[in-house]
Amino acid sequence: MAATGLLAAVLWFSGGGILLAAGVGTGTLGFFFSVGLLFLPLVILTSFILGFVLWGKYYPEENRRVYGSLYGGFTALSSLCVGALAPALLLAVSNVTSGDMAVGEGLVFFVLLLPAGSLFAVIAAGWLVVPLGMFGGWYHERAKGVP
Q1: Residue 70: predicted pLDDT
Q2: Exposed/middle/buried for 36, CB within 10 Å: 0-12, 13-18, 19+?
Q3: How high is the mean pLDDT in each 10-residue block of the chain (147 residues)?
Q4: pTM to 2 decimals?
């Protein structure tokens, strides 16, 4: 799953980089692109840990390909939500350190921005990352050759 997460990230950042290089992207796309790169290792680690837990602890005896697909999709979706931590955390910390917000306001800002960032990540990248994760989980089970 970590390899699938890395592949999805490479495809996503390659597409974003092409858009930015072509001048199509705005400042917001550049911000999410650069901040997302900061949390790329965390996203790959999340994919690895969730894949390890799901396949290690909750491994089914039947319908392994179906469960593999579901586990892959869940892992990809969770990675998107963890990746949304980056903009929310960076904005909250920068506002608190610059004196624009008190610590309590920054915490509330972070808590309110995290679901919005997760929703944005799912809408912006979910169409690519979740099906790729589902395919990765399904293919993992198929490659093992066990029906």
Answers
A1: 92
A2: buried
A3: 74 70 68 70 84 85 87 86 76 84 83 77 80 89 75
A4: 0.74
Q: How many whole angstroms separate alpha carbon 92 and alpha carbon 38?
A: 16
| Rounded CA separation 64/99 (Å) | 53
Give CA–CA dist 24/63, Å, rounded: 44
Closest CA to 49 of 74, 84, 86: 74
3-state secondary structure 19-71: HHHCCCCCHHHHHHHHHHHHCHHHHHHHHHHHHHHHHHHCCCCCCHHHHHHHH
Q: Taking the mean position of all CA atoms in its chain, how far away is CA 20? A: 20
